[in-house]
Structures are given as C-alpha cells and as structure tokens.
Amino acid sequence: MGKKAVGMLVGYVLLAVIGIPVLVTAALGGFREEHMTEAKALYGLEEYWNAKEYSLDTELERYVAGVVSAEMPALFPMEALKAQAVAARTYQVRYMKQSGSEEVLYDVGQAYLDEQGQREKWSAQYEMYAARIRQAVAETKGEIMVYEGEPILAAFHAQSSGKTENSENVWVQEIPYLRSVDSSGDLEAPDHETTTALSAAFVWEALRQYGALGVSATDLTFSKPVCSEAGYVQQIQAGNLTLTGQEVREALGLRSTDFTVQRQGDQFLFTTKGYGHGAGMSQYGAKALAEEGMDYREILQHYYTGISFEKIA
Length: 313
Prior knowledge:
- The protein is α+β, with helices and mostly antiparallel strands and 313 residues long.
- It is built from twelve helices and eleven strands.
- The protein has helices at 3-17, 23-28, 36-43, 59-71, 78-99, 115-122, 126-138, 168-171, 200-207, 245-252, 283-291, 296-303, and strands at residues 143-147, 150-151, 156-157, 193-199, 226-227, 233-238, 241-243, 259-264, 267-273, 281-282, 308-311.
- It has a three-stranded antiparallel sheet.
C-alpha cells in the first residue's frame, strides 16, 4: 500500500473516532443583553460590529466562518477566534486533499452553522457577532498549519484538564505535533470540574456492551485507574472487565476521560475535569493565552508542536 493511501486510511480512521465538542458554543454563544456593555469593554466589540466591512469571497472561507460560529463563542478574544479559524481551515484542507476533492466537504467532523443558523443562534446580536467571526477569518485568509509540508490533523476540544493529551493516548497513533502541553488557563474555564451521579444499574447496563462484567450491578466496583502523565484515564477495571477511559466516557456520556469515580450506595459519582478528548488546541486555553497577550500564531504553535504556516491559493 502506497504512502498516500496509508495517509488517507489513517486520516479516515482518525476522523471516525474524533469527537469534536460543539456543546460549548451552544452553552456560551449567546450573552444576555445586560452583559453586552461589560463584554464590549472587555473585548472591544465597537471595533467589530460592522459586518459589511469583512467580505468572504470563497466557499472555503465562508465554510470556515460557519465552523468558527459553531465551535467557539463569538465573544472570545479576536486572537483566539483567529486561531480557531486557522485550525478549522487546516482541518478542512487536510480532508479535501486526502479525498482528492476540490470542493469543500461538509461532513468531516466539524460543527457548522450557515447564515440562517447563525441568525437563529445570535438573534439581535447577529450583526455584531458575525462581524467578529468574519474579521477573524478574513485576517487569516488562506492560512493553514503544516508539518513536514502537509496539512496537519488540527484536532481541538473545548477545554483540557490543565494539560492537553498525547495523540496516542486518545487515538492510538502517535502524531508528532499532537503532544501534551500545558494548558493551565483551562482551570479557570466554566464547569471545569463537574460531578455527575449515575445509578449503578445504568452504569452496569451501559458498560456491559464491552463484555461480561462478572458481577451484578449491586456488586459492581471500579479499580484505581491507570492515568497518563496529563491525568487522563488510560485503563480502569469495572468488575472483571478492563476498559479504556475513552470507552467509559463514551458509554456513560462523561465530559472527558480525566475522571475519578466512587460508589455511594446504589449510585456512582463521576468527577470529571475538562471537556472533550484533550488532544490539540484547547479552546478555553486559547482564550486564556489570547488574554495573556499571545497572537493566534503563537497560540497555535503552543498547542501544535513543531508546526509552521502556509498560505493556500
């Protein structure tokens, strides 16, 4: 099998298992009216309210604006929005190249909002929010991240547990630019640490899809987890069944694989840190770095090790 074919196969396997979080935008995309004055003072929105100033003249750039609109709150700092725009564009270009398509692909795993969706989401703030997104896209037009001359797999997530995760601890394959890095700004993100109570019966039923637990719901317990250096659960035993952290997360709908668990009576308490798979750029981490004064390229180079930038036609 040729190098190109192998690359395409790996890309599609990764696409099938990467769950890129989108609920963060739904939760935080719309500020109530009484918060607008404070937000304007904080992020300088007066500079970005005129949507007519920023036109996007290709389908790719309009697509990128739709992704940023869905994936990141519009009131995040401009440099964080720009970082998200470059990540979204890179992600799309990678899959266009792998599939041999000259057309934009809308089913590559990124959330997307067209103009109607943006208007429904932002309501009276549409003009202001859409202008901020268009500014971020226009000022990074055509820019992508590359590693050894190829567009990278620009994975991103809502917030890490304080450190991002190595790719092999998420998707098996070691990817040189998806290395664990500090993302301590995530510690201040909303709902960074949450506790969810789940009945033992629910947990037992959800986990037995992976095999026989060997015990009843009444007797089910979890072992002490084996964690990566970044703190994400790599392996844990439920009854007699050994599971990965990702399997537990998917089965139980947990926010991340950085979790602890304890049993209390007929229920389990799962405490999670962060939100998402943990690899690549943290969106709340990007926000924190932008607020510290980093520009979008510095943010991206922090989260994607050893990458460089190219302009596409």
